[in-house]
Design brief:
With 101 residues, the chain is mainly α. Helix content is 66%, strand content 0%. It has four helices and no strands.
């Protein structure tokens, strides 16, 4: 029964995470942390964690690409424009929270 090789199924999460570029992993981590912190500090008590996460990650990546396109005002962390992305994340979260309420 050599049709099914068990080595094909022996991959771990670390194997798949090693395929992603570090800038993507760091960006998702920072965007998630900022979105969660905003939800804990300023969010409402309803079940809107996924909504805050989606808006925050969208703002984070828009800020990163804007910092890359316009030019970095602050020193980037590797290839990630973390300061511009963080400012855009919090700004978009504030605007979306204001429009939602």
């Amino acid at each position: 029964m050599e049709i099914l090789e068990f080595e094909l199924f022996s991959h771990t999460v670390a194997d798949y995470l090693s395929l992603a570029p570090p800038v993507v992993l760091l960006g998702v981590l920072l965007g998630t942390l900022e979105s969660t912190a905003y939800h804990v500090l300023f969010g409402r008590g309803d079940r809107s964690t996924v909504w805050y996460l989606g808006v925050g990650l969208t703002g984070f990546w828009l800020g990163h690409f804007a910092g890359e396109y316009i030019g970095a005002f602050f020193q980037p962390v590797g290839l990630l424009h973390a300061a511009e992305a963080s400012m855009a994340c919090v700004t978009l979260l504030y605007i979306a929270d204001y429009v939602r309420s």
